[in-house]
Amino acid sequence: MNRLMVVLLLLVAGCSAGARAPAPVATSATPSPDISVISPSPTATRAACNGTSVILSAGFPELRGTAQDAELWGLLFAPGPPLASREEIKIVWRMTGEGPLRVRATLPDGTPARLAWGPQPHDGSSWRRPGEEWGTGFVFPKPGCWKIELSRTRGSGYVWLSVK
Q1: The domain that contains 81 carries what CATH number?
Q2: Closest CA to 43 of 65, 64, 58, 60
């Protein structure tokens, strides 16, 4: 039995050694960092404002959204949160469901964030989360706890982001 376990461990180690995710495919003029370094297991987890889970890994912070009839993930191309106000922040989304993606961000007082670009569909990526992928660029005009709402023909969800 022990010999069988050793053989299985060697096979698993041999299959995974040197395996690498493909390089991400850039789909916009905005430079895109290599996100293949994101580990599937987080190094730390913390909550953003209003309970959104932020997963800190070897790459960029990930957001786990709250969704209905869908699964929702966000990848921040910025340190944080908290994010910087009055600067363009790139966020890549993965969401299951059907249909085109609609996205908006507001403060509880109704102040909207400016959608600088997107949602822009991505054809390929090394980021491994369920659903189709889109990129967005937001400018949050002032500090606060921002609600970003995403919806498709089938499926909707949201995340909360702290902006300083």
Answers
A1: 2.60.40.1930
A2: 58
pLDDT digits (tens, 9 = 90+) for 14-67: 333 333 333 333 333 333 333 333 334 444 445 568 888 899 876 899 999 999
Overall domain count for the chain: 1
Q: Strands, DSSP E only, in 14-113?
A: 44-47, 53-56, 62-64, 66-68, 72-76, 88-95, 102-106
Residue 133's domain comprises: 36-163
Predicted TM-score (pTM) of this structure: 0.72
HSE-up (13 A, CA, CB side) for residue 56: 11
CB count in 10 Å sphere of residue 115: 14
- On whether the CB atoms of residues 24 and 34 are closer than 8 A, the answer is yes
